[in-house]
Amino acid sequence: MSEDVxxxxxxxxxxxxxxxxxDVGPDVLERLKRPERVLETNLxxxxxDGSIELFEAYRSQFNGDRGPYKGGIRxxxxxxxxxxxxxxxxxxxxxxVVDIPYGGGKGGIVVDPREYSASELERLTRSYAKELRPxxxxxxxxxxxxxxxxxxxxxxxKDTYETLENTTAPGTITGKALTSGGSEGRVEATGRxxxxxxxxxxxxxxxxxxxxxxxxxxxxxxxxxxxxxIADDLGASVVAVSDSSGAVYDPAGLDVAxxxxxxxxxxxxxxxxxxxxxxTNRELLTLDADLVIPAALENAIDEDIAExxxxxxxxxxxNGPLTPDxxxxxxxxxxxxxxxxxxxxxxxxxxxxxxxxxxxxxNWTEQRVNDELERVITEAFDxxxxxxxxxxxxxxxxxxxxVAIQRVAKAADESGVxx
Length: 419
Ligand code: GLU
Hints:
By secondary structure, the protein is of the alpha/beta class.
């Protein structure tokens, strides 16, 4: 894992790599590599003991040529201006790969939420929502959950926005609880698209996923759901899963639901008695499994780990889990990497369905949500592999960016430049 790779520079490198295969002028390209604006704010929040603490917070609006800015809000001690800028750019290209009518944005607060009470987090979230209010709205910028945020935080932001605006506007934010205007299938959506991408990838490469062994690094909303669906729906054997406490391993396959229950109960995966042994995160990432899924944070696989990777296939559930150098090593070593902007796009795709439902004030069934998601992801997969073959591109990531940049550049070109 590499701490010193700047994710914003990684994003710019990925764009440059793909732009080399495209006829995009340098003026347009420069606009596609930088955010349109970034809000940086310091939130004063009263803690339970009456003291006041300041929290640094951001919202980056990267590009709005294809529609309202869209993207999650992250609570993590490592949030930084450059991380938020990178994540907002990845949202632009993710929405373009799956062809949903959004631009990209991302927000974050520098905080370790485990150190604060629920009422402190509520005051922090409402203070952030107050700062966001002029920027967000169903037609402007639509936040959603990301690392360490979920329905609870989305409901607080929605309520703050609606109270201050004296209206009801559920489409201001997605990832809400069902009873507060959320969508069926949204919680599972990111893991579901990882599963669908893995299914398509195995089929495309002529391999049988039912015979495959799978290792999953990260057991949050994306990793745990992906692991469960890959085991239950596709019949693969999930041999290792990890969280920040470490990894649990069983070559005969883990009972993912039991591992999930153990984590719910104890707060950590380690100590799970359904496993044969425990591994480090590095050992998990370099396991000789048929598929490795990094589902934690950026830069999980650096050049050094990439040299030791033994799998033939990686499906990225996290945003930016490979450094650009790791990407180069894996491309040279013929490891098939299916990129984040496709594989984890299920989250924002079902956010889009939630927003459509909110606008129509009409709720879809879970079946309809899952069917539409499957259509979007399989069409995007086909578009990406078509570009990969037709243009003889070096990696599936470059293929994804080629498809996405073409769409964004066309919209940017059609919009022109406001004087
Ligand atoms: N945070 C998720 C992502 O990185 C979801 C974003 C959304 O639903 O807008 O894709």
